[in-house]
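Take just one protein record:
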Amino acid sequence: MGAYGLPALTCLLFLAFSLALPDTFPTLDNISAVLSTHSIPALLALGATIPIATGKFDLSLGYGLGLAHVMAMRLIVTEGWPWPTACLVVMLGGAAVGAVNGAVVEFARIDSFIATLGTGSVMYAGTGWITDGARIVPGPHGLPAAFTDLYDSRFLGLPVSAWYVLALTAVLWVLLERLPLGRYWYVIGSSPRTADLVGIPSRRYVVHAFTGSGLVVGCAGVLLAAQQQIGNPSVGMDYLLPAFVGALLGSTAIRPGRANAGGTLVAVTVLAIGLAGIGQLGAQFWVTPLFNGCTLLIAVGLAGYAARRQLRRGRTGTAP
């Protein structure tokens, strides 16, 4: 139950809402809409998982998402860049911002909460400077169809954005569970002192973790621009809370006690089903932030409990 209780809850929630809303909830159109709507929060949650594996938190995710999608729109609409070039620059820019976050945390020795909150504020200021507080709206011909297809198209009957989430989950699973880099991140997150004693250069790998997170944020920003098709300087922060809820709640599943890609995907699915279900039942607008906030508190509590339980098991197993 510790590892697979959350996937079981996912199935139970889907079954419960399907019984309550048999004509609308279990339909292919509704499933496709839920997958499409929650693909960007899922990408951000997977991006947040990477620094969390090292014991760090990136609170600049929402600000970075807003800046990335505004930059994509600015380069394509205002500057007239070809959309593939603009997307590549935005994604690489996201990775560069992530590297700066990591350097501030590790080399300036500033707590990750404070450091990323500060850099996020700088990003928000940059977003306002780029847009001058106004929206970036395409001309009469709109955006290139190939660019908007990054979000609007389908593959095998499902939104292509859902396949992005599955692909990123697979990449992170291999990275965290099968490659030395992921194991180094877990060691650093468990005990930085132990990492130093065994010769793992903690600073370098923490910077790598933030760089990877920034790259994911840049990709999510491009996808958000293709979804909204306007540059809105106020978009971004609404995605921060669901991302951390997904990442923290995911650390209680599949691999309880540590951040993992599979658990994050399951947690995001639980949130998507829950929000879609209560929305179709006619919940008021304030129920969504209430749901996210309560789930975050539960996720943090369960994550801490899972970590302490894993630590007790380790001590019990090594005591003899």
In short: The mean pLDDT is 87.
